[in-house]
Specification:
By secondary structure, the protein is an alpha/beta fold. Helix content is 28%, strand content 21%. A hairpin with a 2-residue loop joins strand 23 (396-399) and strand 24. Helix 7 crosses helix 8 (221-231).
Amino acid sequence: MSDYRSKFVSPERAAALAVRSGDWVDYGFGAGFPELMDRALAARRDELTDVKIRGGLVIRPRIEAVECDPERKAFTYYSWHIGDYERKLQSRGLCSFMPMILRYLPELYRSHIRVDAAFVPVSRPDEKGYCGLGISNYAWRVIFEHARTVVFEINERLPRLQGVDGSHRVHLSEADYIVEGEHEPLPVRSYRDPSPVDMEIARHVVREIPDGALLSLGVGGVPFTVANMLAQSDRKDLGCHTGTISDAFLTLYKAGKLTNARKEVDAGYCDWNLAMGSQELYDWLDAEPGLFRPGDVDYIHDPQRIGRMKNVISINGGVELDLMGQENAESAGARQLSGAGGQLDFLEGAFRSPGGKGFICLASTHKRKDGTLKSNIVPFIPGGSTVSAPRGVVEYVATEYGVARLAGLSLGERAQAMISIAHPDFREELSRYARENFK
């Protein structure tokens, strides 16, 4: 390893050396965020033009480089996956969405898109100069190996785990510049109390989960409710192989349910790519590094690897599904609400898994602004909305009215299964469409 001590510079100096007009700059994904470098780059607003910033699923309250330049003269922000803050930016015309499937993201960086500067958040180094990637492994290794200039930002608040086999590890010598300084508390994500509908959906899904199941849980209310119910159930030896590790898994661990003992791959370890949740979750990662094998997107989201393990249960939410089983997980018409993320990856992985089941969970209806009900089971995905998952990979759909199993059914049979879990007020309308179109 080369000597890295000379690479320490101030954030302002790193921003001056790393970024030129016309560059693409990567900020990363999820709750890990290059806070110091963002602030330093924003300070260069009047010196730069046409700098494109890429990120995604930001749960911080602001991105300085975006907020300082509402006319987008210096900086334009692009998101792979719209988070809560990015939705607000989008409504102000300050966020451009880029569609992708998460498992393909590393290949995008390898072969199809350019990255000039990478701002990589890392944990405090150990005595040998090794750092962990904190709470956002993401596709960082691929990105910074293909970047012209790499800046590591040491965040003293990040968990220090490096992965049981170094899967979450980088060395300070791999950076061109290294910055450090005082950071704000890590952004946290909390859960609202489950509604009666959430509880009913979760009950239906929990009945389908066996002992030894390997769980991939999304970050919504229903997956968290499922975890709470499993924690109070008689299930045992549950495992974790998930895109995002959250407080749902901490709940299972505290209840003695999360052992990872029956996993065919990485037995004994929780596998994940991102971490997002409470400070208690981040403290758990820091205090028990031997429990985790964080990995990059190529590893965690690989459907073939997921499919080598038994009883994979993938649980995600959706916006709406049509009678053929096509799912919209991310948009309201042309308005982007989130992104496809890793949902397709885990649906396919669960489909390949012996005993595996991939669930899309959603309430049967939602309330419009005028108080009237709208069905989330629709005759067809409306024009302008996204088909996030094609009908061929959607196997199980759960609402408060039950679980529809779609695999192996004809179009007409799929329609009947979907109608059976729709809200009763809409079943006749849906049945009429099915009779006319799926004779």
